[in-house]
Each structure stands twice: as C-alpha cells, then as structure tokens.
Amino acid sequence: MDATITPKTQVATVKLLIGGKFVESKTTEWRDIVNPATQEVLARVPFATQAELDAAVASAKDAFKTWRKTPIGARARIFLKYQQLIRENMGELAAILTAEQGKTLPDAEGDVFRGLEVVEHASNIGNLQLGELANNVANGVDTYTLLQPLGVCAGITPFNFPAMIPLWMFPMAIVTGNTFVLKPSEQDPMVTMRLAELALEAGIPPGVLNVVHGGEAVVNGICDHKDIKAISFVGSTKVGTHVYNRATLAGKRVQCMMGAKNHAIVMPDANKEQTLNALAGASFGAAGQRCMAVSVAVLVGEARNWVPELIAKARTLKIGAGAEKGVDVGPLVSCAAYERVNGLIERGVADGAKLELDGRKPTVPGYEKGNFVGPTIFSGVKPGMTIYDQEVFGPVLCVADAENIDEAIELINSNPNGNGTAIFTQSGAAARRFQEDIDVGQVGINVPIPVPVPMFSFTGSRASKLGDLGPYGKQVIMFYTQTKTVTARWFDDSTVSHGVNTTISLK
User: PANTHER family given for it (predicted)?
Assistant: First the structure.
C-alpha cells in the first residue's frame, strides 16, 4: 500500500485517494489500525475533514463529465484488467486483510475472491446495461429506453469484509458510467486501499474512484452532500437506519444492507455429519463476524438430541492468529468487540440459557493479547433472551428447538430480521414448504450461508434491508442508472401532417 513513515510515530499513515492521487490528510484526528491477534499498531488512518470530502466529491463530479461518455466496451476492458490484477495479487491482499482484520488466510482469500466475482460480473456490462425498444408503437413512432448513469455515487462499508464489500460497490457503480466516493471501515482500510491502487493500475481514470476515511462526521457529510446522487451501505442496523433516513430526506437513492439473526432449521432426516460440519463452519467461521453467519440452530424433533455431537464438532476447531496454519477461528476485530461478545455471553447465562460450551478466555500460546473468543454454544434459547434478540457478531451459536417444521418456520418469521436462513433436510417436500413459507430474503437448502453469486442479487428483507434494490446482479444495474424513455417520430415529405392536433393521441 502507498504509505509514508511519519517521524513522530514511525507508523505508516493511510492516504486519501482524491483525483487519482494518494494524498496525506490534513486532519488532526487519527485512529490506530491494530492487529487484533497481537495489538500491534499497523498504521494510522485519518478522519477526513469536510474540505477533503468536498474535494473528493468535486473530483468525482468533474470526472463524471467525461467518464459517462466513455464507450461501454472501454469500461468493460478496464475491469477485465482489474480482475487479472486482483488474481495476481491475491496472496498479498489476503495477508494485508488478515493482519488488520484477523480472519484466517484461507478465509481472507475467500473474502477477496467473492469480491473478484463481482468484478468479473462488471466486465460483462455490455450484456447488462441494455435498454428496451418497441418499434412502431403508433404511426411511425418508436419508443425506447436508455439506462444512463446517475453521477457521483458513494459507498460506506463495514469492517468484516474489507475486500468483498467494497468490490460489491464501486465496480458496478463505475462500470455503469458513474463516479464513486468510497468510505471504508476505519478499523481495517488497508486492504481496501491496496484494491484502490490496483484499480488505478487497471486504468480507472483520475477522479472516477475516490476514497475518504472517517467516522460519523464523514458518514453524515456523505448523506448530506448535494452532489452525491446514490449511497450504498453495509453495516449495523442502527447506522444503516440513520444513513437511510438522512440520505433519503436529502433526495438520494439509498440501499442499506443491515443486521441479521440468521436461523438454520435442522430436520431429523438431515444428513447428520454434513449438517454438523455446516453448522460449525457457518456459526464459528470468521469468528462469527458475518452478517450471514448462522447464529441460531433450530433443532426439530429427534434432531434435538444432536447437541452433544454439535459441541464435539465445535471443540475440534483450532483457535489462533489468522496467519497461522491450520487455524479455524481467528480473533475478534477489536478490544471493544471482544468486551461486547463476552458481555453478551454473561448475559445469556443470566437470562437462563444453558451454556453448553464456553469459549471465553481460550489459551492461545504466543498471542496472549489477542481478542480471542472460542466457539460458544447455548441451548434452551428463546425469544426475549438478549443473546437471541441481539446480533452477537461473535462465535456464539444459540440452539432452540421445535416440535415440527411449522413451529420452526413460525419462530423464524416472528424474528424482525430477514437476511438469511437455511434448512437441512433430505425431504424435497419439507424444503419446498420452507422456501415457500419462510419470510427471509436469502434461503439455503442444505447450504448454510446462501450468499448468491453475482448474476443474482443480495436480497435481504424486513429489518435487514432498507431500499428495494440490492447490491450487484440485475438489481444493482437499476440502482446505479436512471431509466430515460424516448418516444421518437421521424417524418419524410410524404408523411408530414398539415393540421394542428390538440389531442393526446399519437395516431
């Protein structure tokens, strides 16, 4: 990454990207980027000033004048080059991500790869940004639509996927002809900045992609800025609701992917080994810091007897620093996250849930200062308990039970969130019943984390989503473009009308 060493701290400083140049912020407010496994300070990130945000937006606005006229094939070729550069630098990107965020190296590579899939999808823009034509809708009249870019768009991304989620946003916005201002998480922006460097290397022109850093003030500045036309957000429900309300009042298009409480129904006929492996991976992978993690397992009928085997499976997972080989569960991203998750575990015990497996204060030799919480399992969890009602965002699995599939579906549909859900069964009838009756945006059938591939769109629902169009896929083409409908009639001498027509008819 492009960084300098400051004499005062001897720590690298993360730059802003404005007008195609990586520039040092003039702010007086900085935050340390900390390795969550060691507490080592890796770099310092600036909280950009209002003037720096204004400069980034002005750069994007100016670049839009020419970028929107760039041929669609030229835009696509940039993203073909970009996907090649990401592949060539996969190892470096994963290493940066692991150091600042904590997830294991294989999971970090998966983070980058799922974003890469969207970049590849963006390179197919020639087949995606198509309008419609109806010939001769009236006498010599044609009607057609154009999907035209909006202008300056912005993205606000979370800490848990610092490669994938930025790659959900700016490639699709830019390839459709918009320019972009990105605000990555201030907790782990370094891999995002490396991706920005590669984007410039791929040929994205100066000003088309800009990056600013910061907290609440920068988020509010993005919501309020008169020259920003659309905002994409992924993060907590509290912040997402604030962004949606503030930005829509300012007249912007907004899509917000927010919090979750994802349930997985386990039917008694499910393949036990496959199901236990899937639950353990989806609950405890990435230390539970996924908006699509399985955080509630609803065991139906005889499957309620599987808890001891689920505990045994969880005990096999290795806890450690993400860069170490063989590690399954890395640290939580920050000391604050560590304290919050431990506090919620304590609250679960106080609320009467049975702590079947306690992951607090694991021994991790050589990383005693790390923010580690091991796999934790509660049984007897019910609505009203804090660990059920709140998104823990840690390696904590709540086990509930149900007599039958009807009771399980009712439990899930009663939860306010609707991000993702799954069922494990060998019954086609049960699976079809589930997919029809469940009120959740993304459904997995024997798939624990049903995040769709980029040809489709991320489709969270209810309290997990605000805005009716999701990121990537066909929906995001509509989000980042304005449909313009043109009705045209061309005359020759033989068809010229010689009278005034005062009716609405096009005959």
Answer: MALONATE-SEMIALDEHYDE DEHYDROGENASE, METHYLMALONATE-SEMIALDEHYDE DEHYDROGENASE [ACYLATING], MITOCHONDRIAL
DSSP 47: -
Confidence band (pLDDT; 50, 70, 90) for 10?
Answer: confident
- 197's CB contacts (< 8 A; 6+ apart) are 1, 2, 22
Dump pLDDT digits (tens) for 428-458.
999 999 999 999 999 999 999 999 999 898 9
CB 323 within 8 A of CB 451: no
What is the mean pLDDT of the segment spanning 66-83? 98
Q: Is 256 a catalytic residue?
A: no
- In this predicted structure, what is the pLDDT of residue 220? 98
DSSP classification of residue 319: B
Looking up residue 300, the CATH number of its domain turns out to be 3.40.309.10
Task: Work out how many domains the chain is built from and give that number.
Answer: 2
How far apart, in whole angstroms, are the C-alpha atoms of residue 226 and residue 242?
18
Q: Tell which residue, 200, 130, 134, has the closest CA to residue 170.
A: 200
Q: What percent of the chain has pLDDT over 70?
A: 96
Q: 103 and 49 share a domain?
A: yes
Band the pLDDT of 173: cuts 50, 70, 90. very high
Query: Residue 71: how many CB atoms within 10 A of its CB?
Result: 9
CA distances for 443 relative to 48, 54, 431, 449, 489, angstroms = 39, 41, 10, 8, 47
Query: Could you say which of 153, 291, 335, 398 is catalytic?
Result: 291
Residue 44's CATH number: 3.40.605.10
Name 211's bridge partners: 17, 182
Its pTM surpasses 0.90: yes
> What is the band of 1 on the pLDDT scale with cuts at 50, 70, 90?
very low
Q: Is residue 251 assigned to a domain?
A: yes
In a domain, 6, yes or no: no
- Nearest Cα to 299, choosing from 329, 273, 283, 276? 276
Q: Are 155 and 168 found together in one domain?
A: yes
Do 227 and 269 fall within a single domain? Answer: no
Range of the domain at 77: 16-258+473-486
6, pLDDT greater than 50: no
The span from the CA of 9 to the CA of 43, in Å, is 10
**345 in Cβ contact with 388 (< 8 Å):** no
